[in-house]
Amino acid sequence: MRPLTRYAVVGGAVCACTAFGTIAEAQQGDVICSVLSGEPCAPTVCSPLSGVPCQPQYPFPLGQTLQLTVNSTQSKQGEPVDRDHPIDTIRELFAALRACWQPPDATHHGMQMSVRFAFKRTGEVIAEPRVTYTTPGIDHDTRQVYRHTITQALDRCTPVPFSKGMGGAIAGRPIAIRYVDNRDAPDRQHAKDAPDRERAKDTPDREHAK
User: Fold this and answer.
1) Alpha-carbon distance 55 to 41, whole Å?
2) Chain mean pLDDT for the chain
């Protein structure tokens, strides 16, 4: 009986390791969820036909702060969120937050401001976003301009049209957004264009030469 027990224990351990490996693979997104697949998977929405308790899985650990950087030279700016399209992934949320941002008219190259907040299940912001970082040495008026611009950007995005599963998973999760004004200031742009102007001045007019 002892040899059989030993083999049973070893066999059980091998099966357990195989199962854990399959589950880990599923959580990394290598296994596509299906009601008929019969394999472990990490669905964004639990299936009522699974027959076992489940919880929607999203690609970030519980309690971890979601971090996003928004640059001022991105292609899409000042676009309100499409409320007819439910947001179901972190990638879609980040794309919406980036598109809602529109930098102020006045350029302050290198200006950075970070805010921290959390969403409700309904897509609204739980409380007023808290500024956690501002570039040192920036005057009060400039800080207020960027703070107001960030508030306008979040107003364009909220309430975020979360899907039911996404809203339940992201509610209360801290989100930190760092806004970076990487546009060239007028004086920097003028200096950058100076060599082109000098070359144009030194180049003879072809029509005149003819």
Assistant:
1) 11
2) 74
User: How is the chain split into domains, by residue range?
Assistant: 1-57, 66-185
The pTM of this model reads 0.60
Question: Is 151 a residue whose pLDDT tops 80?
Answer: yes
C-alpha distance across the termini of the chain, in Å: 107
Q: Which amino acid is at 42?
A: A
Q: What are the Cα distances from residue 132, in Å, to 3, 127, 175, 178?
A: 63, 14, 12, 9
pLDDT tens-digit series, residues 3-12: 544 444 444 4
How does 177-205 read in b/e, with b if 16+ C-beta sit within 10 Å? Answer: bebbbebeeeeeeeeeeeeeeeeeeeeee
Instruction: Provide the angle, in degrees to the nearest 10, between the axes of the packed helices 140-157 and 90-100.
Output: 130
CB 26 within 8 A of CB 59: no
Q: Note the pLDDT tens digit of each residue in 125-135.
A: 999 999 999 99
